Each structure stands twice: as structure tokens, then as C-alpha cells.
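STRUCTURE:
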């Protein structure tokens, strides 16, 4: 029996449905992280403890002295009930940004015709990460002079990065970024820098960009209840060459 293998290959038209689904997932995956971080924030935990205590006190559910350990099992209901408004409030405040991000991404100029868009420049590309002939990740770089973020012919932009969660612990997202960046720099000598954005809400992408040598270039925006930073990142050709020769 053949061992399953991982490979990075160019996008094909028959990948379209899976790629669009993965891009949509990538746009929304930060929401779960934002909600978890909000709910586990010390202020949220303190509020939960206060609400639970008030509810138990109001309903007279405190176990009587000597009632034994089993009496405390009844506190599961008020403890869980007190968490519900905090969870709903967190999601309600965080979700709007990710809904808007998803709409922006899915209406992006590349989404009209993926094959055609990423064929406009030799340094552009949309690559698929496969494992055992199954799509488990993707990466795209836009080096078109008409890209809306920069409109400079010397700049390539990472538009999409996604790896299925079970494969992130292998660090394969690092290989995907390195492969795409190398392709951009070697395909067009006029490309002098590659740009990206990242936040701590997608930790695996943020760490992979760090390992690839991307430096911080300022804050693009802040998002969610706790105002997490979405930061611009940049890797210059000079820095990339130094890393290749080290």
C-alpha cells in the first residue's frame, strides 16, 4: 500500500469549489479564537462568577452545610446559565467584523475568475496543498500591477493562507509560505517585496509569517471587543536573499 504524500501544486479549475470554501473558512476562522479569548478574559470570568453567585443567591440554591459533595452538582445549571449571556454578548460583538471580512474577501477582484486572475503575472500564483490527494490548504500571492492594495509593480501581496486544523501542528504552513514566496521572487526580478496581514486570532499564520522572515510594518486596524491588532507584514527581497544564503 502506497504511503500518503503531501505536495504543493498549482491551482486547477476543478479545484474551484473547494478553494472558495477554504477561502471562506479562512475569513471566518478568527471568530472562534476571538470569542474564546473574550470569554476567558479576566473581566469576563469575574462577571460570570458574579452573575452565577447572584443567581444562586436569588434562587436560594446554595447547598446546606453538611449536604455533601453531591449537593454541589445542582450548581451546574446556574453556573452554565450565567455563562450564556457572556457567550452571546461576546459573539454578537465580535461577529460583525468577521462577517464584513468574509464579504470583502469573497467579493475581492480575484474571486471573479481565480484561474484568470492569478495568471496575470508570472509572480502571481494560487497553490494547493494536498495530502493523500485531498485539499488540506492553499496559498495565493497577487503580483498583478493592478492589485487594489498597492498598485505598484514591485509589490506582491499574500491574499489567502489556509491550512486545515489537523495539519497545522506539522508546521506545513511554513513550507507553503516559503514555496509561494520563493516562486514570486524567482519568477519576476522586479518584485522587491511581499506583503501580508496577520493577527493573533490566526496564530498559526502569524507564527508562520514570523518564521518566514516577515517583519511588522504597522497596524492596519483593530478588531473585536478586545481590539486585537491586524498588522501589516513585509518581507523584502534583500531580507529573503539573506535568509537563503544563511
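SEQUENCE:
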Amino acid at each position: 500500500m502506497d504511503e500518503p504524500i503531501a505536495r504543493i501544486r498549482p491551482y486547477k479549475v476543478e479545484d474551484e469549489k473547494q478553494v472558495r470554501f477554504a477561502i471562506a473558512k479562512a475569513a471566518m476562522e478568527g471568530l472562534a479564537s476571538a470569542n474564546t479569548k473574550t470569554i476567558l478574559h479576566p473581566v469576563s470570568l469575574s462577571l460570570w462568577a458574579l452573575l452565577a453567585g447572584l443567581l444562586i443567591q436569588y434562587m436560594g440554591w446554595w447547598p446546606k452545610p453538611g449536604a455533601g459533595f453531591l449537593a454541589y452538582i445542582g450548581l451546574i445549571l446556574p453556573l452554565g446559565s450565567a455563562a450564556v449571556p457572556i457567550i452571546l454578548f461576546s459573539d454578537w460583538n465580535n461577529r460583525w467584523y468577521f462577517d464584513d471580512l468574509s464579504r470583502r474577501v469573497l467579493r475581492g477582484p480575484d474571486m471573479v475568475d481565480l484561474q484568470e486572475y492569478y495568471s496575470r503575472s508570472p509572480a502571481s500564483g494560487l497553490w494547493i496543498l494536498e495530502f493523500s490527494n485531498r485539499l488540506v490548504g492553499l496559498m495565493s500571492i497577487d503580483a498583478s500591477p493592478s492589485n487594489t492594495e498597492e498598485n505598484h509593480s514591485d509589490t506582491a501581496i499574500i491574499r489567502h493562507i489556509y491550512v486545515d486544523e489537523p495539519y497545522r501542528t506539522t508546521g506545513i504552513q511554513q513550507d507553503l509560505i516559503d514555496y509561494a514566496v520563493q516562486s514570486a521572487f524567482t519568477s519576476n526580478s522586479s518584485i522587491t517585496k511581499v506583503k501580508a496581514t496577520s493577527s493573533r486570532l490566526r496564530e498559526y499564520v502569524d507564527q508562520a509569517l514570523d518564521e518566514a522572515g516577515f517583519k511588522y510594518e504597522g497596524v492596519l486596524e483593530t478588531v473585536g471587543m478586545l481590539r486585537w491588532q491586524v498588522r501589516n507584514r513585509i518581507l523584502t527581497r534583500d531580507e529573503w536573499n539573506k535568509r537563503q544564503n544563511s
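REMARK: The chain has a mean pLDDT of 89.
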